[in-house]
Amino acid sequence: xxxxxxxxxxxxxxxxxxxxxxxxxxxxxxxxxxxxxxxxxxxxxxxxxxxxxxxxxxxxxxxxxxxxxxxxxxxxxxxxxxxxxxxxxxxxxxxxxxxxxxxxxxxxxxxxxxxxxxxxxxxxxxxxxxxxxxxxxxxxxxxxxxxxxxxxxxxxxxxxxxxxxxxxxxxxxxxxxxxxxxxxxxxxxxxxxxxxxxxxxxxxxxxxxxxxxxxxxxxxxxxxxxxxxxxxxxxxxxxxxxxxxxxxxxxxxxxxxxxxxxxxxxxxxxxxxxxxxxxxxxxxxxxxxxxxxxxxxxxxxxxxxxxxxxxxxxxxxxxxxxxxxxxxxxxxxxxxxxxxxxxxxxxxxxxxxxxxxxxxxxxxxxxxxxxxxxxxxxxxxxxxxxxxxxxxxxxxxxxxxxxxxxxx
Length: 408
What we know:
Elements: H1 3-22, E1 36-43, H2 44-57, H3 59-66, E2 80-81, E3 85-91, E4 100-105, H4 108-117, E5 121-124, E6 127-129, E7 134-138, E8 141-145, E9 161-162, E10 165-166, E11 178-183, E12 188-195, E13 199-204, H5 212-219, E14 225-230, H6 231-240, H7 246-249, E15 251-272, E16 278-298, H8 301-310, E17 328-332, E18 336-341, E19 355-360, H9 364-368, H10 375-378, E20 380-388, E21 391-398
């Protein structure tokens, strides 16, 4: 056989190997349960291709990776079978922080070594946990979750038919790196997940609005939080947090601005001296306190306030107690209700006549919320939610660094 023929055969075999390794996908979804209400899919092979492309574009990363701890077992050597589409789901009527996935175990010995290497400890029969994740082994499968409270209620997988179609990855995603889908009895809403150099962006299929100008304007402001929402968006967001109360509230518009500041809090306690006389002890501590104003437009402000009282969100001193940051004061007129912090006033931002939530990262958050003190949250620059007509966008913007997100 001539050398050029041998070379051609090698090229063909390599091309076939690359195709099956990086492009061919098994789109079957085996483990999405019938009681899931949110499903996140990640196209593992597309993510791998994006990683390889970024890795090749950043030669300095090659040498950094060679210096990493070789004793740490990687996911690829964990004994788990990683599907072409990673299936993460949230169960109906559970906390928003609880997410799960089901994976197949192809090598029990390797998987046991991986659990030990990653410092998982046995918390009962076939159960393991570390600081962040919980695992339950069920035969040749393992369930992984951010909680272990609902492993026993993960329902049976969907049948192969879903909404009149064969159930596969195409039921939930198009061309993105991933997708997030909200499942209800009436319909499924699919949103595409894109991963750029310094941001994660989630959009629905109908999204065509450019929010760049709005984001740029909001990012120039000093407020920690700015929001402006109509009744439809209030209802959608409250339903995500399982608080379907927007109809009872009679609120058809919300506007909010907030700043964070560090203040000195005085702590008074009492003790006794050597003669058992009561003495007052005064100490001080630094705490993070927001200054804010929330403006609500209501079709009937009296009924809205009555709803606050019934839910015990409002006390006799006209303070809004549903948020823990006190003191504040509620005032109202015919169709508006204002909830304003009394320590320091905050001016509401200009009216944009758009639906958005903009949260700007602030180092003061880390001292108040320990869960935000890890590096992932510290690297975030801002969070943005925007809606106009049928276009929905969520953006998580990270600080610009040496490497793109997929390499960090």
